[in-house]
Amino acid sequence: MLLQDVYKAAKVVKSGNHFTTVNEFTDQLPALRPKVLWEASLEVVKIGSFNVDKIVTEEDKGAPLATLVSVMTNTPLAIARWYPYSLGTHNEVRVKIDSEYFRGDLYLNGVLPGDKVAIIDDTISTGGALIALIKAIRDAGGNVSEVICVVEKVGNHGVERVLKETGVLV
Ligand SMILES: O=P(O)(O)OC[C@H]1O[C@H](OP(=O)(O)OP(=O)(O)O)[C@H](O)[C@@H]1O
Ligand SMILES: Nc1ncnc2[nH]cnc12
């Protein structure tokens, strides 16, 4: 798989107290080749059912992947952000996020009551981002149908944490 080569070629840098694998897929360093994004997106589309109303991801590393999967499955895309729009028109919800690199507030717009949602992200580490997204979708009145990540940073038990805190299997 190309993605395995991408991670083998990646440099590991210290970022605060954490080690980050700076790589082509998640950081566009070196610039992201379309065939790498295609490979990852095809795997996601194969695994998921995408019998959903919306795809949701978190800014910004999940965005290229979620965008291509959205196009491939013809499913509208909502991206949760670290700031509010406060328009009063798109069912904005705010949740707390406690992930490996970021702690604060996360805002989701565009998921409506009754929506079935697939969450897509590039990486799961502690599971904090996914837990925040699942909570945001539920607070908006939506239902989480499936959650798919391409890469797991092992050792941080993210999959177990998400299952324990939300009942959702990544
Ligand atoms: O399982 P977790 O501990 O939550 O880590 C995974 C999250 O980390 C990365 O995002 P990051 O926080 O680097 O934000 P970014 O996508 O905006 O760069 C990645 O895109 C996931 O969303
Ligand atoms: N690209 C990445 N490398 C290492 N740890 C991470 N945690 C979240 N994204 C990561």
From TrEMBL:
Presence of the UniProt keyword Transferase in the record: yes
Coiled coil regions, renumbered to chain: none
Record keywords, A-Z: Glycosyltransferase, Purine salvage, Transferase
GO molecular function, one term: adenine phosphoribosyltransferase activity
Record's keyword annotation contains Amino-acid biosynthesis: no
Domain of life, source organism: Bacteria
Main enzyme class: transferase
EC code(s) of this entry: 2.4.2.7
NCBIfam families in the record: PRK12560.1
InterPro entries, alphabetized: PRTase-like (IPR029057), PRTase_dom (IPR000836), Pur/Pyrimidine_PRTase (IPR050118)
UniProt protein name: Adenine phosphoribosyltransferase
One Gene Ontology biological process: purine ribonucleoside salvage
